[in-house]
Amino acid sequence: MKHTLIAAASVLAFAVSAPAFAQGTPAKNDMERTATWQSDEERMMYENDRERYAPFFNDDWSAYRSDDEIRSAFDAMGADDQAGVRDACERAALNPGSYGTVTNGLCGVVGETASTN
Fold first, then answer.
1. Spatial separation of the C-alpha atoms in residues 51 and 31, rounded to whole Å
2. For the chain, does the N or the C end have fewer beta carbons within 10 angstroms?
3. How far apart are alpha carbons 47 and 23 in whole angstroms?
4. What does DSSP assign to residue 97?
5. Any long-range contacts for 94-98 (C-beta under 8 Å, 24+ apart)?
6. What is the spatial distance between Cα 83 and Cα 25, in angstroms, rounded to a whole number?
7. Which of 20, 14, 43 is nearest to 30 (CA)?
8. Rounded to whole angstroms, what are the CA distances from 95 to 21, 81, 85, 92, 99?
9. Measured distance CA(11)–CA(5) in Å, rounded
10. Residue 55 burial by CB count (10 A; 0-12/13-18/19+): exposed, middle or buried?
11. How high is the pLDDT of residue 64?
12. What is the per-residue pLDDT across 66-102, written as a single tens digit (0 to 9) for each?
């Protein structure tokens, strides 16, 4: 009986204290929490230029927007930002194993948009 009470008290103490420990855990940024990147190189591409790439993604960065929305966002960018996106896509094309379907899809749409302008 005594062992059962000790075990039950231990379980109860853990159940009550677990949320307190979880609150102390630092939250990851949105991109690390919701997106799956092929490599650190790909993840850093977006994190280093978060403002530049934000118009291409939904609010939680879990998926990129439709092709039409990407074209519109790219067309609305200034020349420097467009050049930066093109340069990043060229780097991705030179190292395809480091970039996943999100970057390849995004760069495909940007490449189509750039060739029609």
1. 13
2. N
3. 25
4. G
5. 95/41, 97/38, 97/39, 98/38, 98/39, 98/41, 98/42
6. 39
7. 43
8. 41, 21, 15, 5, 7
9. 10
10. middle
11. 83
12. 899 999 999 999 999 999 999 999 999 999 889 988 8
Tens of pLDDT, residues 20-74:
434 333 344 555 445 678 899 998 999 999 999 999 988 888 778 889 999 999 9
The structure tokens listed for 92 are 């991705």
Sort residue 11 into left (φ over 0), alpha (ψ -120 to 50) or beta.
alpha
Beta bridge partners of 68: none
User: What is this structure's pTM?
Assistant: 0.66
pLDDT category of residue 116 using cuts at 50, 70 and 90: low
If residue 73 lies in a helix (H) or strand (E), which one and from where to where?
Answer: helix 67-76
Asked if residues 75 and 83 have their Cβ atoms less than 8 Å apart, the reply is: no
pLDDT of residue 35: 60
Length of the chain equals 117
